[in-house]
Design a protein that fits this description.
This protein is α/β, with parallel strands linked by helices. 44% of the residues lie in helices and 15% in strands. A hairpin with a 5-residue loop joins β5 and β6. α2 crosses α7 and α4 crosses α7. The protein is globular and about 60 Å long. It starts with a helix and ends with a helix. The N terminus and C terminus are likely disordered.
């Protein structure tokens, strides 16, 4: 038993001695490392200025895009739309560009297009583009047609009464119709120019006037129904009307209508048409 104790004692002494050696060696290595680190730091300080941490406050803030307005030029590419004295896709491109320029010149807005003028894009693709842009308003621009030259005038389609977002869509439509009525000679169709479109399961369409609360179909314009913001679809005049075409079937006529849409957007948002700064809280109004 005594032997075992002594043997164990020797083992403990050997372990202790080895441990001390290891500690001494480790301390030496650590000291050497510290010395090298200090030397490197001194060299760094001598050779180049010390780089301090980047402050978050000093970073350049992203500019406020303002109110993002999506403009949808109807048709385009291989889809010419309605044809008459002029072609719908050409008219919608001219009008969309004029509205884009007006909004871009107003620092309170950032206009975006759902597609290029010369491209065809499906309703789903255009709706997805609007939602990915996080647009706060959508104006989809189209033209009307009929077999009769006497059919003419302006109308603006909003989401029907039973659809979510109906009230905001109607308010935007009313503001645009009012601007067109105040500033142009266009006939305002229906009760007050604001209308609803319904599609049945078989694809038949039914137009209803502003005060008509009847649900005529299960669907409406797909673009209005699939975006996450107040949206309207404008039928700005009849390409098959000689009178409408004479007054508005040109770039200057389209620019006149675009000015009305710009004024209507400003009115809907409670803004002056470009002469005043953006009021506080307008983003919440726009949403």
């Amino acid at each position: 038993m005594a032997w075992k104790k002594r043997k164990n004692s020797r083992r403990r002494r050997r372990f202790s001695y080895r441990f001390k050696l290891l500690c001494i060696g480790a301390a030496g290595v650590a000291a050497l490392g510290v010395g090298i680190g200090i030397a490197a730091a001194l060299l760094t300080d001598t050779d180049s200025p010390q780089a301090g941490p980047v402050s978050a406050a000093s970073a350049e803030p992203e500019p406020d895009p303002g109110i993002i307005v999506a403009i949808d030029p109807g048709h385009g590419g291989t889809d010419l739309g309605a044809e008459g004295y002029c072609t719908e896709s050409e008219i919608t491109a001219w009008t969309a560009q004029a509205l884009y320029d007006l909004l871009e010149a107003d620092k309170r807005f950032t206009p975006v297009l759902t597609k290029d003028y010369d491209d065809y894009a499906s309703v789903d693709d255009r709706a997805q583009a609007v939602n990915e842009m996080e647009a706060e308003l959508l104006v989809s621009i189209h033209c009307n047609s009929d077999v009769y030259d006497s059919s003419s005038g302006f109308e603006c389609y909003a989401l029907p009464p039973s659809w979510e977002g109906h009230a905001e869509s109607v308010s935007l439509a009313q503001a645009i119709v009012q601007a067109v009525s105040d500033s142009t000679s266009l006939r305002i169709r229906g009760e007050n120019g604001v209308r609803y479109m319904y599609f049945s399961a078989s694809g038949d369409r039914q137009v209803a006037d502003f005060s008509d609360q009847t649900a005529y179909g299960a669907e409406t314009f797909g673009l209005l129904d699939r975006v996450d913001c107040p949206a309207v679809l404008i039928e700005q005049f009849f390409v098959t009307s000689s009178e409408d075409n004479r007054n508005f079937g040109s770039e200057s006529g389209c620019a006149e209508l675009a000015q009305c849409y710009y004024e209507g957007i400003c009115s809907y948002l409670g803004l002056d048409d470009g002469t005043e700064d953006l009021p506080t809280g307008v983003a919440s109004i726009a949403g």
